[in-house]
Amino acid sequence: MEILKKQLTVKAPADWFTGDVWFDVIYAGQEPSRMRANMVRFSLCARTDWHSHAMGQTLRIVSGIALIGTRDGTVIEAHPGDTIHTPPGEEHWHGATPDHFMTHLALWEGTGDDRPETTWLGKVDDAAYDAPPSSTR
Fold this sequence. Notes:
This protein has 137 residues and is mainly beta. The protein has one helix at 126-130; strands at residues 10-11, 17-18, 21-28, 35-42, 47-48, 51-53, 57-64, 66-70, 75-78, 83-86, 92-96, 102-109, 118-120.
């Protein structure tokens, strides 16, 4: 057993995000582990670009209100305590609403081979971001 040293908070790259986003790497497993975990903080309106994960991704909303969208135009609103799973290969985005900061715990697995864990695609345009959520509280 070991205590892993806390990594510095990192500003997320503009190549993959719109707006101000910061993350803390909690765990990036070394072989044979493929586990990944990041705590990610989004400012108002901030969001990821379109992306997919080779092994899927699970998000646990910690604070604020999250928006999660898929290519078919579905946008869901998620609140603290909600857990969202996107299956392998599903193109999606996630971010904060215009009036709430949002923090989520992102969990995913590496592939264990030459395939990328995450495939980054294009920016999420305002029309996709502004679409009314189909699932809210």
